[in-house]
Amino acid sequence: MLEYALKKRMKLLICTQKVDKEDDVLGFFHGWLVEFAKKAEKITVVCLEKGIVELPKNVEVFSLGKEKFEIGNLKFGIRQRLYCKINYLVNFYRYILQKRNEYDVVLVHMNKEYVLLGWKVWKLFGKKIVFWYNHKKGGPMASYAGFLSNKILYTSPDSFFAGNRKAIMTPVGIDTDIFKKNNNVLPKAGSFLCLGRISPVKNLETLIEAVKILSNKKNDFSLSFCGEAVAKDESYFEKMKKDSKSLQEKGFIKFFPAVANYKAPEIYGANHFLLNATGSGSMDKTIFEAMAMEMPVLASNIGLQKIWPEDLYGKFLFKENDADDLSQKMEKLLAMPAMEREEIGRKMRTIVLEKHSLSVLTEKLFFIFNELKR
Is 260 part of any domain? Predict the structure, then answer.
């Protein structure tokens, strides 16, 4: 009863980049808020940008105003950008001060700037700071944000803060009620998927080269890219489409637009395998979403050696930036009997259910929050 009472009294301030159910990359955080709301009395969210939200009554979302100040692809000059930043700052301090009696613990999700800007206010009013940071690279500013925080959270064994005395490794946080296999949907034979925002860190060139190598041996497979690029990565995206033009014409490679995170299970379900060439350091959520969907995953992130059992990473971990190694493993997957593939899929989902589901993450986070509050 005491533990239940503590949870019901928990009041959180969460600072994050974006809250939008329809976002293809950050839409998962909307689902997190729905789950967190079951454990908290009140959640106040301050975000840079707010989109479509459908949240419980005990969750309030306040935007710093990016969606108002930066509409479409409008390119602002120096004065306009300065005006936007001043407005962001004014709104940030207004919200964290006005709502200071409505939260006990602050969770800063990924953006170190929130810690650097808000720590004096939070320390003054006795608020505990939990900093979620999962990037491989950090630097002085991230280090200082970590120093100012009471706890640091990360999911990748190779994260910048891994090994820090304040740091705690947490589950990835996959909603396994949404990301689950639909037995009524039959994936296309030999279908590989790469899902997520298009950017150089995804190493699409390695995937395209592997398809090119394998296409000289087999013709019964395809790779679908599902995602879009932000403005700064548009030239990279165009180059990838240009470099794979002949493979597209032969049907080996296809490009599809991004979808909202909660709609992603439809895309996963239409394919047999996931390919992920993101470099080691971060921990791409799409790997775990696919695992929850019972899809065998080929990835190059060596951090998975600490998450997958040896019999999995020996077969499904390919050498980073090595298209030859990837093409060989793709070929073995295509030749794998259906029963073996399904057994591997079930094993991958079990890993997520036991260690990386959203419910497991929520339990761990609220244990940390309650410990800090006492």
Answer: yes
Location of structure tokens 């929130």: 114
Instruction: Report d(CA 38, CA 53) in Å as an integer.
Output: 17
**pLDDT of residue 78 exceeding 80:** no
Number of domains in the chain: 2
Contacts of 114 (CB under 8 A, 6+ apart): 15, 46, 92, 108
For residue 73, the model assigns a pLDDT of 44
Encode pLDDT of 324-373 as tens digits.
999 999 999 999 999 999 999 999 999 999 999 999 999 999 999 999 98
Q: Which residues contact 142 (CB under 8 A, 6 or more apart)?
A: 112, 133, 135, 160, 161
Measure the CA angle with vertex 263, ends 262 and 264; round to 5°: 95
- 142 vs 110: CA distance, rounded Å: 10
Q: Is residue 178 part of a domain?
A: no
φ/ψ of residue 251, rounded to 5:
85, 10
| Tokens standing for residue 186 | 């039959």
What is the Cα–Cα distance from 316 to 310, expressed in whole angstroms? 10
**Domain hosting residue 152, numbered range:** 2-173+357-373
DSSP secondary structure letters along 39-64: T-SEEEEEEEEE------TTEEEEE-
Q: pLDDT of 207-249, one tens digit each?
A: 999 999 999 998 899 999 999 999 999 999 999 999 999 999 9
Does 248 lie in the same domain as 163?
no
Is the same domain home to 137 and 284?
no
**Which one, of 175, 138, 133, lies nearest residue 156 by Cα?**
133
Which residues are paired to 270 by β-bridges? none
* 149 and 267 within one domain: no
Mean residue pLDDT of the chain comes to 93
Predicted TM-score of the model (pTM): 0.93
Which 8-state DSSP code applies to residue 234? H
Q: Is the pLDDT assigned to residue 1 strictly greater than 50?
A: no
Enter the tokens of residue 121.
Answer: 């206010």
